[in-house]
Write a structure and sequence with these properties.
The protein is α+β, with helices and mostly antiparallel strands. It folds into 2 domains: 2-69 and 112-122, 2-Layer Sandwich (hypothetical protein PF0899 fold), CATH 3.30.2320; 72-107, no CATH class. The protein is 24% helix and 37% strand. It has helices at residues 2-20, 41-51; strands spanning 25-34, 61-67, 70-72, 79-80, 83-87, 92-96, 107-110, 114-122. Strands 2-1-8 form a 3-stranded mixed beta sheet, covered by helices on one side. Strands 4-3-7 form a 3-stranded antiparallel beta sheet, with no helix packed on it. α1 packs across α2 (41-51). The radius of gyration is 18 Å and the shape is elongated. The chain binds zinc ion. Zinc ion (ZN) binds at residues 73, 75-76, 78, 99, 101-102, 104. Zinc ion (ZN) is lined by residues 73, 75-76, 78, 99, 101-102, 104.
Length: 123
Amino acid sequence: MHEGSITSQIVENVLREAEKRKAKRVLEVHLEIGKLMFLNPEQVHFWYQMLTKNTILEGSQLLIEEKPGTVKCPKCGYEGDFQYVDDPALHMPMPTLNCPKCDGTVKIVSGKDCFIKTVKMLI
Ligand SMILES: [Zn+2]
């Protein structure tokens, strides 16, 4: 479950920032998560609630924005969204590293990142 470790990193970062600014409470945390992180937002919410208990983040609102990934093909120069294939085992479309134009192998440009966009705090 990598949601737990990623969420704890996020919480630590927000806490550090809040301490630096001597915040009394953190009201809202806005996250941007790349689709290729394969994080389950529900799990992130769950861990967030667990990890913020008894901290100044307790009760704050967590907003999660999912960012689509981008790929680039070194062969034909295609740049854009992933090609998705339906995975019958998972019942959901999974991104592949096949170029939708030439069937070459694409490189991931973005979507594997996760960062804190904004934090609202009470100072
Ligand atoms: Zn291509």
